[in-house]
Structure formats: C-alpha cells, structure tokens
C-alpha cells in the first residue's frame, strides 16, 4: 500500500529517495497501487525522461518507463515482440504498465519477458548508486532491489514467437521465442510456467531446439497443464518457430 508519493525531477533526486528505507520505484503503478500489507513510499519515475525508444545501430534502447503500448507502437518493435506484447496485458493495462515494472513483477507466463529472454536483453540498473549492465537471464531469478533505467535488445536477427493458450487472447499455457543471429547463434526461451520464463537453449546453431524445449518442461506440472503436455507443446512450438 502506498502511503507517501514522491515525484523527483532528476535521477539523482530519485536515487537519494530510493536509498532510504521503504522507498520503491513506481512505474505504471498497475501493480504497486493495488492494496497490499506493506506500507511503502512510492518514487514515481515519470518525470525522469526514461521514456524513449531509441534505435542505435543494430540495438534498440528502451527506457524503463516506456509503456508496453508505446513499445508495441514503435516503428522499431520487431513483429514477434509486438505479438508477445499484445498477449502480455489488455490495452488499458498496456497504456499504463512500463517495461521495467513488467519485468520486475513478471511470472513465467509473461510473454514479454519470454521474448526478451530469447533476445538476451541487457538491463541497465543502478544498485546502491552503482551502475551496471545485467543480462535479463541473471536478473530474473534474483530480481535485486535497485533502479532499472533502460534495457537493450538486438535488432539484427531473426525472431519468432508462438504460443498455446485456452483462448487466443489468454495468457499462454506454453509459449516459445526463438532468436537466431547471423552468426548461427540460437536462443530459445519458454514461458507459460513457473516464477520466470526459462532459457531452454543458447547454442552456436539451432539444431536440437525441439529436444531442448522438451527437456526444459520435464517437471512443468501445475493447475493449467501436465508436464507431459507442456513437453509436447514446447517441442512443437520450438519447431514452428524454427520453420517460420
Ligand atoms: C487488472 C490487473 C490485471 C493484472 N494482470 C496481471 C497478469 O496477468 N500477470 C502479471 O504478471 N501481472 C498482472 N498485473 C500486474 C501488472 O499490471 C503488471 O505486472 C505490470 O506490467 C507492472 O508494470 P507497472 O509499470 O505498472 O509496474 P508498477 O506497478 O509501477 O511496479 C511493479 C513493481 O516493479 C517495480 N518497478 C517499477 N519500475 C521499476 C524500475 N524502473 N526499476 C526497478 N523496479 C521497478 C516496482 O517497485 C514494483 O515492485 C495486473 C494488474 C492489474 C491492475
């Protein structure tokens, strides 16, 4: 529950606030503004100018407070990422939710995080006033407290995304994202289960993606589907991504 609201005008001011106890960054507030047991002071990031989508060579730099809808509408947003963003949340939520807030709060059913994991996205973050670049794959299991300022994804590659869900607009029971670099490097990420999406494969070539997909979900049973079902679907989606 938010008990105090701050709107700093500079990054320095925001970092000073965030160094104090019970201060948390506020992105779109779609989750943080929900009632909760812990009283927090919210540090609204909206005046910090972290809301730009910039193409720099073969990279796309996405500011932390860019909304999901803003990214979806960007001319530089890869088609497969746009498909995943549409599934992440309905339009009203996409208009408010930010890319950083979504990654911090995501679970394994996040289509956005699944595609970014396949893309080997890098997060720029500041922890205890120290800046660093963190791979999304290293960030997700730990989600350290700090301030994400932006994220970067590569553009010079082939990217495919596919999913299976109860209805076309529902969150997936299984989704797969496959990124293939010109060098041959292939990265497969799977979503639809668990606390975070899973990296199924990061290899020098795409051979073996189906087996990797199958193996990744060998214990993926929950209320939505059995592991056996997810293993079959993941292998099929990986094959479709490879062929698309
Ligand atoms: C009706 C409704 C349905 C929802 N359905 C789902 C759902 O199905 N699945 C799901 O996963 N979520 C769901 N959510 C939660 C929420 O919409 C998403 O997680 C959303 O994408 C969060 O983004 P935000 O920018 O609004 O984050 P906020 O609510 O502002 O913040 C979320 C978390 O991220 C942190 N944070 C924000 N920005 C930064 C930053 N720059 N650096 C570091 N930390 C930061 C905050 O401190 C907080 O811990 C739902 C919310 C609503 C209201």
What report would you give on this structure?
The chain has helices at residues 11-18, 68-73, 79-88, 91-96, 99-105, 111-118, 136-142, 209-216, 227-243, and strands at residues 2-6, 23-26, 40-44, 53-56, 59-63, 122-127, 130-135, 147-154, 157-164, 174-181, 186-191, 198-203. Strands 4-5-8-6-7 form a 5-stranded antiparallel sheet. By secondary structure, it is α+β, with helices and mostly antiparallel strands. It has 3 domains: 2-43, no CATH class; 53-154, Uridine Diphospho-n-acetylenolpyruvylglucosamine Reductase, domain 3, CATH 3.30.465; 157-243, Enolase-like, domain 1 (2-Layer Sandwich). Helix 3 (79-88) packs antiparallel against helix 6 (111-118) and helix 8 runs antiparallel to helix 9 (227-243). Bound molecules: flavin-adenine dinucleotide. The site of flavin-adenine dinucleotide has 27 residues, from strand 2, helix 4, helix 5 and strand 8.
Counting DSSP H or I runs of 4 or more residues, the number of helices is 9
CATH topology of the largest domain: Uridine Diphospho-n-acetylenolpyruvylglucosamine Reductase, domain 3
- Arrangement of strands in the largest sheet: 4-5-8-6-7
Number of domains: 3
The largest pleated sheet is described as: 5 strands, antiparallel
User: Would you tell me the overall average pLDDT?
Assistant: 97
Helix content: 25-40%
Bound ions, cofactors and other small molecules, one mention each: flavin-adenine dinucleotide
Query: What is the CATH class name of the largest domain?
Result: Alpha Beta
Write down the Rg. 18 Å
- Tell me the span between the first and last alpha carbons: 45 Å
Give me the secondary-structure category: alpha+beta
